[in-house]
Sequence to fold (998 residues):
Amino acid sequence: MSKITRRTFAASSAAVAASAAFGLTPARAQAYPARPVTVIVPWGAGGGTDATARIVAALLEKDLGQPFNVVNRTGGSGVVGHSAIATAQPDGYTIGMLTVEISMMHWQGLTELAPKSYTPLALMNEDPPGIQVSSSSPYKTVKELAEAIKAAPPGKFKASGTGQGGIWHLALVGWMQAMGLPANQVAWVPSNGAAPAMQDLAAGGLDLTTCSVPEARAIIEAGKARSLAIMAPARNPIFKDVPTLKEAMGIDYATGAWRGIGAPKNLPPEIATKLTAALKKVYDSAEFKDFMSNRGFGTVWGDAGEFASFMDKGDAQMGEAMKAAGLSKA
Amino acid sequence: MLKTLIEAFALISTWEVIIAMFAASVYGLVIGSLPGLSATMATALLVPVTFYLSPIAAIATIVAASSMAIFSGDIPGALLRIPGTPASAAYADEAYAMTRKGQAELALGAGVWFSAVGGIAGVLSLMILAPPLAEIALSFSTFEYFWLALLGLMCATLVARSSPVKAIAGMFLGLLVSCVGIENPGGVPRFTFGLTDLFGGIEPIPALVGVFAVAQVMRAMLTPEPPPLPRRKFGSIMAGQWKLTKKYHWQMTRGNIVGIIIGVLPGAGADMAAWVSYAMSKRFSKEPEKFGTGHVEGLVEAGASNNASIASGWVPSLLFGIPGDTIAAIAIGVLYMKGLNPGPTLFTEKASSMYAIYLMFIIANILMIPLGIAMIRVAAYILLAPRSAIMPIIMLCCAVGSFAIGNNMFGVVTVAAFGIIGYVMEANGYPVAAMVLGIVMGTMVEQAFVTSLIKSDGSILPFFERPVAAILAAMAIGALLWPVMLWAWRKVKPVRTGVAATSR
Amino acid sequence: MRLPDSVTGSFLVVLGTAAAYGGWLLPPVPGQPVGPNVFPLVIGIGLALCGLAIVFGIGHTFEEAEELIPLEDGQTAAAPPPQGKLYALRALLPPALLLFYVVSADRLGFIITAAIMVYVTSTALGAKWKLALPLAALSPFAIHLIFGKLLRVPLPAGLLPTPW
Fold:
């Protein structure tokens, strides 16, 4: 009796080994997900990326019938979590939230990871930078501000919004270049995120910030700051009065911080298709739309192919801005 | 006003909110009191839970858990000399000294009572003074922060009962640790030795857990099991508190005020409030020589201060979405997630929700007294349990707690390394608390200094020109020169000081 | 582990100098008058000066001998423990166990690793098997219940998955 049991056990484990070796059979893929899925977030609990990941995970769970557990793998300024996604088993049971940093850090020589290290699944969100000044600032339009920046000696104007070499710093550099000015025309004051920068703007320590409008929202509503323009192709429906750069001064420059869902490289295509389809449903759901518009986050959809080309384009744009600012090691 | 207050009452008197609040209070007390786990972590681990709750219940859990955890961080600090938060590291030695004198209940009773009083003072300030407090927060630019951080660092020498040179050395070690990583103004990896895990730097919490909890277990390995502490009857915990309140009412008020002001400044928070208040208490005390020997005065002031700062820390969070500390940063995330977006509209359009938050703060602080007493009674049993049963659990908590911060095994490695560092430092008379302070404040000092110089094009004049900066500068320089002048004075007039000392 | 002040002081001088030198090597950042090199440089020099002061015994008079280091109990009357080169190494057991956790938790799983840690620590502190064994058997489950189950900390399952 015991012998037979052992033999059946051996046979079944051989079958498991075989399916692992030869890839998943279509029957198994139909069954995906058969157990809980881990969603890795490279940033801490309570932040915007975490919140987005949690709403996406909750909706995926509802659709696919298995728990999607959000795990915050923090540390290394995002490198640790991003590399945990890249190095996980490509079996569909570990996916993660990719953020714009993945197209920036490798230019600075901080990691080998790049957009190419992942199987892109879907782009869910993009937030363009805004241009904010203090409410006591003499500049009422972005054109006036730009003229004053052009006329001033390099470094006279001070801007902030994030750390040195962060996304909003590169947005500023990109804007300066689009106006034909050197990267250091406006001095960058590194800050520990958007909130302290907005505080310093209101305290009178800065001339402008280039963080996203949602990040500046509370201070703007408190009447301590004004948003002059956003660096996006279209206006934000929540801040209808803020013009785009193109409308305000005819400069066609747009960039943004984005978030998308990705998986380790070499994810079986059946699973990838299934996940992308489920993510599309999540994206179209009222819950997701409501949540994102409540927080003022922009929603942008891109399927696997679009997300891949979006990241490639963004990667090249970031590389250019980094080189201009003297931040690139590559 | 009355109508919104009634609406607010209606909002919080649902079963969901009441149960959430009670459960979160117990949870906060337990997590905060486990050595190796911190108030910040207690709050962060609640985020997934709040996802399933209604907006008011979600905020209730955060409010209750964070208030309780900050207090109960004092419990392992007092009983085992393992502070649960960087704030309680400031006075853990003092509270532990009281426990050894058999006054554990007085120390912890003072903790719970003055924390509750401080918490309520903080909420009242939040209710009445939010707009002027917000103005204070917004008048602080990096120039002011630089002096503030410097003042905070000076507390290292005041708090330690050791050679001031070694205290300063400990503080410098902490500052050096804070250099590690990429999160410096230049965004350049420093002292990372090519390790990805070091990019994010070394966080204060694993370092704190290492130098206190792991080092304590290491010491236990070499010392024989001590005879159990004289088991006096664990008397009424609250009995002596009213007497203390009357005796130290000025210290308590000063602690409340300092806590409220520091709490309102984003980035400073409860940790700094506790240090500054404890140091102030010692400096202005009539009997400073008693500090560090189990004297309750400093505990009164620091306890009153750090819980006051928790509530006032919500002012910039609620008005501008600028977090006062890491706990507030998590709370802001939850507020956004629940559609209670921070901003002045929260105070006008959603006034009843705002009042509900105030009320929950007050209730949490009142609830803290009975629950805290119950917790102290239970926790006191660990003084009876054999060391060989307590220490293994502490080890396990250290491992799980440091892992859970970032779900990253590197946290555990950090804790182990800081255990060794803390053990060696302590054995040689270097105060580890000073190092923790250095780690907490280091980033702020550098960030404020470098960004200030960028903004002023390299000129140091604005450090003294801005009115608030000038006052803080005078205080910092005064505090720096004071011991030197005192020392010189004693050299010149040795006899006078001798007389003064005996006349005390 | 009580070392002479001259040893710890000298160590600080070396560490401070190394930090200052390490900071010195860092490249300047475009657009920042004070680069990332300045802060380590200042700290390194400060640390080295403190180290020198300690070597020369400045500030030593402020130290309050042994009472300053709160021993486990303050009962100095307790008999000194058996001395020996190996005995002092016992202090390294806790950090070693934490490293053991790092290395083997993913393979063995949380429950087994934690049980080993608890048993070893408890025995090393003089517990009889009657205490250590039940403690090692029960406490990992309790901790796992709180953190793994209720708070969703992803503790590794490894060889012995928990029943929940």
Q: What stands out?
A: Chain A has two domains: 36-126+257-324, 130-249. The radius of gyration of chain A is 23 Å. The longest helix of chain A spans residues 304-324.
